[in-house]
UniProtKB/TrEMBL annotation:
Record-linked SUPFAM superfamilies: WD40 repeat-like
Native species: Euplotes crassus
Transmembrane domains' residue ranges: none
Coiled-coil segments on the chain, per record: none
Keyword hit for Ion transport: no
InterPro entries reported for this sequence: PROPPIN (IPR048720), WD40/YVTN_repeat-like_dom_sf (IPR015943), WD40_repeat_dom_sf (IPR036322)
Pfam families xrefs: PROPPIN
Protein name in UniProt: Uncharacterized protein
Protein backbone atom coordinates (compact mmCIF):
# COMPACT_ATOMS: atom_id res chain seq x y z
CA UNK A 1 0.00 0.00 0.00
CA UNK A 2 1.30 3.45 -0.85
CA UNK A 3 2.08 5.42 2.26
CA UNK A 4 -0.44 8.09 3.10
CA UNK A 5 0.64 11.58 4.10
CA UNK A 6 -0.09 12.96 7.55
CA UNK A 7 -3.74 13.86 7.88
CA UNK A 8 -4.23 17.53 8.70
CA UNK A 9 -6.99 20.13 8.88
CA UNK A 10 -4.88 23.28 8.62
CA UNK A 11 -4.37 24.90 5.22
CA UNK A 12 -1.79 27.67 5.28
CA UNK A 13 -3.18 29.16 2.07
CA UNK A 14 -6.55 29.74 3.74
CA UNK A 15 -5.84 30.25 7.43
CA UNK A 16 -3.48 32.06 9.75
CA UNK A 17 -3.36 28.99 12.02
CA UNK A 18 -1.35 25.77 11.55
CA UNK A 19 -1.87 24.16 14.98
CA UNK A 20 -3.83 24.69 18.19
CA UNK A 21 -3.51 23.77 21.87
CA UNK A 22 -5.80 24.36 24.84
CA UNK A 23 -5.10 24.04 28.57
CA UNK A 24 -7.06 25.03 31.67
CA UNK A 25 -5.51 28.50 31.63
CA UNK A 26 -3.89 29.11 28.23
CA UNK A 27 -4.36 28.81 24.46
CA UNK A 28 -1.58 28.36 21.91
CA UNK A 29 -1.75 28.86 18.14
CA UNK A 30 1.00 27.74 15.80
CA UNK A 31 1.13 30.12 12.83
CA UNK A 32 3.00 30.37 9.50
CA UNK A 33 5.41 32.80 11.22
CA UNK A 34 5.73 31.40 14.76
CA UNK A 35 3.27 31.12 17.61
CA UNK A 36 0.81 33.08 19.77
CA UNK A 37 -0.05 32.49 23.44
CA UNK A 38 -3.29 33.70 25.06
CA UNK A 39 -4.70 33.61 28.55
CA UNK A 40 -8.09 31.90 28.64
CA UNK A 41 -9.80 34.04 31.27
CA UNK A 42 -9.64 36.84 30.36
CA UNK A 43 -9.12 36.04 26.67
CA UNK A 44 -5.98 38.04 26.06
CA UNK A 45 -2.96 37.77 23.74
CA UNK A 46 0.19 37.74 25.90
CA UNK A 47 2.85 36.53 23.43
CA UNK A 48 3.21 36.90 19.66
CA UNK A 49 6.51 35.22 18.78
CA UNK A 50 7.99 35.53 15.30
CA UNK A 51 10.07 32.41 14.64
CA UNK A 52 10.69 33.15 10.98
CA UNK A 53 8.63 30.14 9.89
CA UNK A 54 5.68 27.85 10.59
CA UNK A 55 4.77 25.75 13.66
CA UNK A 56 2.82 22.62 12.70
CA UNK A 57 2.45 21.08 16.20
CA UNK A 58 2.38 22.96 19.50
CA UNK A 59 1.52 22.30 23.15
CA UNK A 60 2.15 23.16 26.79
CA UNK A 61 4.61 21.48 29.14
CA UNK A 62 4.53 23.82 32.15
CA UNK A 63 1.60 26.23 31.81
CA UNK A 64 2.78 29.04 29.50
CA UNK A 65 6.38 29.09 30.79
CA UNK A 66 7.54 26.02 28.86
CA UNK A 67 5.97 25.01 25.56
CA UNK A 68 6.93 22.52 22.87
CA UNK A 69 6.64 22.64 19.10
CA UNK A 70 7.51 21.03 15.77
CA UNK A 71 7.99 23.03 12.59
CA UNK A 72 5.73 22.87 9.55
CA UNK A 73 3.93 24.78 6.84
CA UNK A 74 5.43 26.14 3.63
CA UNK A 75 8.50 27.43 5.48
CA UNK A 76 9.01 25.53 8.77
CA UNK A 77 10.47 27.43 11.73
CA UNK A 78 12.50 24.31 12.58
CA UNK A 79 12.85 21.06 10.59
CA UNK A 80 9.73 18.89 10.54
CA UNK A 81 11.66 16.02 12.12
CA UNK A 82 12.74 18.05 15.18
CA UNK A 83 10.93 18.43 18.51
CA UNK A 84 11.84 21.50 20.55
CA UNK A 85 11.16 22.15 24.23
CA UNK A 86 11.12 25.93 24.58
CA UNK A 87 11.30 28.44 27.43
CA UNK A 88 8.54 30.83 26.36
CA UNK A 89 9.43 33.44 28.98
CA UNK A 90 13.13 33.67 28.11
CA UNK A 91 12.86 32.74 24.41
CA UNK A 92 15.42 29.96 24.50
CA UNK A 93 15.62 26.30 23.58
CA UNK A 94 15.76 23.88 26.52
CA UNK A 95 16.29 20.67 24.57
CA UNK A 96 15.48 19.01 21.28
CA UNK A 97 14.94 15.57 19.77
CA UNK A 98 15.86 14.88 16.16
CA UNK A 99 13.75 12.08 14.68
CA UNK A 100 14.70 10.03 11.63
CA UNK A 101 11.72 11.33 9.64
CA UNK A 102 8.85 13.81 9.76
CA UNK A 103 7.06 13.95 13.12
CA UNK A 104 3.32 13.26 12.85
CA UNK A 105 2.43 14.03 16.47
CA UNK A 106 3.74 14.45 20.00
CA UNK A 107 2.50 13.42 23.45
CA UNK A 108 4.30 14.68 26.53
CA UNK A 109 4.02 14.74 30.32
CA UNK A 110 6.54 15.34 33.07
CA UNK A 111 8.43 12.05 32.74
CA UNK A 112 7.87 10.87 29.16
CA UNK A 113 7.92 12.12 25.59
CA UNK A 114 6.28 10.08 22.81
CA UNK A 115 7.30 10.96 19.26
CA UNK A 116 5.04 9.55 16.53
CA UNK A 117 6.41 9.01 13.03
CA UNK A 118 4.70 7.51 10.00
CA UNK A 119 5.49 3.90 10.97
CA UNK A 120 7.23 4.19 14.36
CA UNK A 121 6.49 5.40 17.88
CA UNK A 122 9.44 6.37 20.08
CA UNK A 123 9.25 6.80 23.88
CA UNK A 124 11.89 9.04 25.49
CA UNK A 125 12.47 9.43 29.21
CA UNK A 126 12.30 12.95 30.61
CA UNK A 127 14.60 14.61 31.47
CA UNK A 128 16.11 13.52 28.16
CA UNK A 129 18.78 10.84 28.26
CA UNK A 130 20.24 8.28 25.89
CA UNK A 131 17.54 5.83 26.92
CA UNK A 132 14.53 5.42 24.64
CA UNK A 133 12.30 2.68 23.20
CA UNK A 134 11.28 2.43 19.56
CA UNK A 135 8.30 0.43 18.34
CA UNK A 136 7.45 -0.38 14.73
CA UNK A 137 3.81 0.41 13.93
CA UNK A 138 1.33 0.16 11.12
CA UNK A 139 1.08 3.27 8.93
CA UNK A 140 -0.15 6.05 11.21
CA UNK A 141 -1.34 8.99 9.07
CA UNK A 142 -3.34 10.52 11.94
CA UNK A 143 -0.41 10.35 14.37
CA UNK A 144 -2.48 8.65 17.06
CA UNK A 145 -0.98 8.14 20.53
CA UNK A 146 -2.36 8.26 24.08
CA UNK A 147 -0.75 8.66 27.50
CA UNK A 148 -2.58 8.65 30.84
CA UNK A 149 -2.65 12.37 31.83
CA UNK A 150 -2.54 12.06 35.62
CA UNK A 151 0.91 12.09 37.21
CA UNK A 152 1.86 8.79 38.83
CA UNK A 153 0.09 6.69 36.17
CA UNK A 154 2.22 5.35 33.32
CA UNK A 155 -0.09 3.76 30.76
CA UNK A 156 0.29 4.51 27.05
CA UNK A 157 -1.48 3.25 23.94
CA UNK A 158 -0.06 3.20 20.42
CA UNK A 159 -0.56 1.40 17.11
CA UNK A 160 0.63 -2.16 16.72
CA UNK A 161 2.43 -3.47 13.67
CA UNK A 162 -0.77 -4.81 12.11
CA UNK A 163 -3.39 -2.35 10.80
CA UNK A 164 -6.17 -1.71 13.33
CA UNK A 165 -4.23 -3.22 16.25
CA UNK A 166 -3.57 -1.30 19.47
CA UNK A 167 -0.89 -1.89 22.09
CA UNK A 168 -1.43 -0.88 25.72
CA UNK A 169 1.98 -0.34 27.31
CA UNK A 170 3.37 0.61 30.72
CA UNK A 171 6.22 2.90 29.73
CA UNK A 172 7.74 3.02 33.23
CA UNK A 173 7.91 -0.76 33.63
CA UNK A 174 8.45 -1.25 29.87
CA UNK A 175 5.79 -3.95 29.91
CA UNK A 176 2.96 -4.88 27.55
CA UNK A 177 -0.42 -4.59 29.30
CA UNK A 178 -2.81 -5.63 26.53
CA UNK A 179 -3.15 -6.05 22.78
CA UNK A 180 -6.44 -5.03 21.17
CA UNK A 181 -7.06 -6.49 17.73
CA UNK A 182 -9.15 -4.52 15.23
CA UNK A 183 -9.95 -4.65 11.54
CA UNK A 184 -6.89 -5.94 9.64
CA UNK A 185 -7.89 -4.22 6.37
CA UNK A 186 -4.98 -1.98 5.28
CA UNK A 187 -7.44 0.78 4.42
CA UNK A 188 -8.74 0.77 7.99
CA UNK A 189 -7.20 3.54 10.10
CA UNK A 190 -7.42 4.50 13.75
CA UNK A 191 -8.14 8.23 13.69
CA UNK A 192 -8.14 9.19 17.40
CA UNK A 193 -7.07 7.73 20.75
CA UNK A 194 -7.41 8.91 24.34
CA UNK A 195 -6.87 7.44 27.80
CA UNK A 196 -8.77 8.50 30.88
CA UNK A 197 -6.83 10.21 33.66
CA UNK A 198 -5.56 7.02 35.36
CA UNK A 199 -5.14 5.01 32.15
CA UNK A 200 -7.79 2.39 32.96
CA UNK A 201 -10.05 3.14 29.96
CA UNK A 202 -8.96 3.60 26.34
CA UNK A 203 -11.23 5.41 23.88
CA UNK A 204 -10.64 4.72 20.20
CA UNK A 205 -12.17 6.00 16.95
CA UNK A 206 -11.62 4.47 13.53
CA UNK A 207 -12.14 5.39 9.90
CA UNK A 208 -15.58 3.77 10.18
CA UNK A 209 -16.41 7.27 11.45
CA UNK A 210 -19.56 6.66 13.51
CA UNK A 211 -18.51 5.04 16.77
CA UNK A 212 -16.04 5.48 19.63
CA UNK A 213 -15.04 2.21 21.28
CA UNK A 214 -14.05 2.06 24.97
CA UNK A 215 -11.72 -0.70 26.22
CA UNK A 216 -10.44 -1.91 29.57
CA UNK A 217 -6.65 -1.43 29.43
CA UNK A 218 -5.97 -4.34 31.79
CA UNK A 219 -7.03 -6.99 29.29
CA UNK A 220 -8.39 -5.23 26.19
CA UNK A 221 -12.04 -6.09 26.90
CA UNK A 222 -14.51 -3.83 25.10
CA UNK A 223 -16.60 -1.91 27.64
CA UNK A 224 -18.85 0.37 25.56
CA UNK A 225 -19.58 1.79 22.14
CA UNK A 226 -20.72 5.41 21.86
CA UNK A 227 -22.21 6.57 18.56
CA UNK A 228 -21.95 10.12 17.16
CA UNK A 229 -24.31 9.48 14.22
CA UNK A 230 -25.23 7.14 11.40
CA UNK A 231 -23.44 9.03 8.58
CA UNK A 232 -19.67 8.33 8.58
CA UNK A 233 -17.40 11.30 9.35
CA UNK A 234 -13.77 11.25 10.48
CA UNK A 235 -13.57 11.49 14.28
CA UNK A 236 -10.43 13.50 15.01
CA UNK A 237 -10.70 14.46 18.68
CA UNK A 238 -11.55 12.55 21.89
CA UNK A 239 -11.20 13.84 25.44
CA UNK A 240 -12.24 12.66 28.91
CA UNK A 241 -13.42 15.59 31.03
CA UNK A 242 -14.69 16.44 34.54
CA UNK A 243 -12.83 13.66 36.37
CA UNK A 244 -13.54 11.24 33.52
CA UNK A 245 -17.33 11.54 33.94
CA UNK A 246 -17.77 13.02 30.43
CA UNK A 247 -16.42 12.04 27.02
CA UNK A 248 -16.12 14.68 24.29
CA UNK A 249 -15.72 13.71 20.65
CA UNK A 250 -15.52 15.83 17.51
CA UNK A 251 -15.64 14.92 13.84
CA UNK A 252 -15.37 16.54 10.42
CA UNK A 253 -19.17 16.75 10.43
CA UNK A 254 -18.71 19.85 12.60
CA UNK A 255 -20.36 18.64 15.80
CA UNK A 256 -18.97 18.22 19.31
CA UNK A 257 -20.78 15.36 21.06
CA UNK A 258 -20.82 15.04 24.85
CA UNK A 259 -21.45 11.63 26.42
CA UNK A 260 -21.90 10.67 30.03
CA UNK A 261 -19.20 8.10 30.75
CA UNK A 262 -21.68 5.62 32.19
CA UNK A 263 -18.89 3.16 32.92
CA UNK A 264 -17.88 5.33 35.88
CA UNK A 265 -21.25 7.04 36.42
CA UNK A 266 -23.59 4.08 35.99
CA UNK A 267 -26.54 4.19 38.35
CA UNK A 268 -25.83 7.63 39.80
CA UNK A 269 -28.89 9.83 40.20
CA UNK A 270 -29.14 13.46 39.14
CA UNK A 271 -26.83 13.04 36.13
CA UNK A 272 -27.63 13.65 32.45
CA UNK A 273 -28.61 10.55 30.50
CA UNK A 274 -27.20 9.52 27.13
CA UNK A 275 -29.57 9.06 24.20
CA UNK A 276 -30.59 5.41 24.39
CA UNK A 277 -33.39 3.85 22.34
CA UNK A 278 -36.40 2.47 24.20
CA UNK A 279 -35.78 -0.65 22.10
CA UNK A 280 -32.15 -0.98 23.28
CA UNK A 281 -33.01 -4.35 24.83
CA UNK A 282 -33.15 -5.63 21.23
CA UNK A 283 -29.54 -4.52 20.66
CA UNK A 284 -28.08 -8.06 20.75
CA UNK A 285 -30.42 -8.97 17.87
CA UNK A 286 -30.53 -5.64 16.01
CA UNK A 287 -27.27 -3.77 16.76
CA UNK A 288 -28.56 -0.39 15.52
CA UNK A 289 -31.19 -0.34 18.29
CA UNK A 290 -28.52 -0.84 20.94
CA UNK A 291 -26.50 2.28 20.04
CA UNK A 292 -25.76 4.89 22.70
CA UNK A 293 -25.92 8.51 21.53
CA UNK A 294 -24.70 11.71 23.17
CA UNK A 295 -26.75 13.71 25.67
CA UNK A 296 -25.51 17.09 24.38
CA UNK A 297 -24.20 18.57 21.10
CA UNK A 298 -22.58 21.76 19.89
CA UNK A 299 -22.14 22.58 16.21
CA UNK A 300 -19.53 24.73 14.44
CA UNK A 301 -18.57 24.76 10.73
CA UNK A 302 -14.86 23.87 11.10
CA UNK A 303 -13.51 20.41 10.25
CA UNK A 304 -11.19 20.22 13.25
CA UNK A 305 -11.61 21.46 16.80
CA UNK A 306 -10.60 20.67 20.36
CA UNK A 307 -12.69 21.26 23.48
CA UNK A 308 -12.92 21.11 27.24
CA UNK A 309 -15.57 21.44 29.95
CA UNK A 310 -14.63 23.76 32.84
CA UNK A 311 -17.90 22.76 34.54
CA UNK A 312 -21.03 20.66 33.94
CA UNK A 313 -22.75 23.68 32.44
CA UNK A 314 -20.06 25.10 30.15
CA UNK A 315 -18.11 24.10 27.05
CA UNK A 316 -15.07 25.76 25.48
CA UNK A 317 -14.27 24.93 21.85
CA UNK A 318 -11.14 26.00 19.94
CA UNK A 319 -11.25 25.52 16.16
CA UNK A 320 -8.56 25.05 13.52
CA UNK A 321 -9.27 28.55 12.21
CA UNK A 322 -8.40 30.15 15.55
CA UNK A 323 -11.99 30.76 16.63
CA UNK A 324 -12.96 30.31 20.27
CA UNK A 325 -16.54 29.35 21.14
CA UNK A 326 -17.93 29.58 24.68
CA UNK A 327 -21.27 27.86 25.19
CA UNK A 328 -23.72 26.92 27.94
CA UNK A 329 -25.13 23.46 28.58
CA UNK A 330 -28.47 22.58 30.16
CA UNK A 331 -27.11 20.45 33.00
CA UNK A 332 -30.31 18.45 33.54
CA UNK A 333 -31.62 17.98 29.99
CA UNK A 334 -28.60 18.32 27.69
CA UNK A 335 -29.73 18.85 24.10
CA UNK A 336 -28.05 21.58 22.04
CA UNK A 337 -25.43 23.68 23.84
CA UNK A 338 -26.18 27.41 23.49
CA UNK A 339 -23.50 29.74 22.13
CA UNK A 340 -22.59 32.49 24.59
CA UNK A 341 -19.44 34.08 23.08
CA UNK A 342 -17.50 33.70 19.84
CA UNK A 343 -14.04 35.22 19.44
CA UNK A 344 -11.58 35.14 16.52
CA UNK A 345 -8.23 34.90 18.30
CA UNK A 346 -6.15 36.03 15.31
CA UNK A 347 -7.90 39.43 15.58
CA UNK A 348 -6.49 39.92 19.10
CA UNK A 349 -3.73 42.49 19.59
CA UNK A 350 -1.15 42.58 22.37
CA UNK A 351 -2.95 45.66 23.75
CA UNK A 352 -6.71 45.15 23.90
CA UNK A 353 -9.78 45.16 26.12
CA UNK A 354 -10.05 42.03 28.27
CA UNK A 355 -12.81 39.56 27.41
CA UNK A 356 -13.90 37.35 30.33
CA UNK A 357 -15.49 33.93 30.20
CA UNK A 358 -19.12 33.76 31.32
CA UNK A 359 -19.62 32.61 34.89
CA UNK A 360 -20.18 28.89 35.36
CA UNK A 361 -23.77 27.76 35.65
Amino acid sequence: MEKEEEKGFFDQKEHEVLSIALSNSFIALGTPNGYKIYTLNPIKLIKDKDMGGGIRHIGFYNQDKIIWFVGGGNLPAVPENEFRLWDNHNDEELCKVVAESKINSIKIKSNVLAVVLSEKTVFHNLPLSDKYKTFETATNPYGVIAISPLEGFTTAAYLGEEPGTLIVYDYAKEELQAMIEGNSDEEYYITALELNSVGSILACATSEGCTVHLYDTKDGTKLRDYTRGSAPSTINFISFQLDDTRLLISSEAGTIHIFMNDITQEGQEGQPVNDISVFSFLGPLIPYLGKIGSYCKFRTPELYKIAMMPSEGSLIVLSSTGKLYLSNINVEEGGEAILDTKKTLTDCLLVQKNIYLPKNN
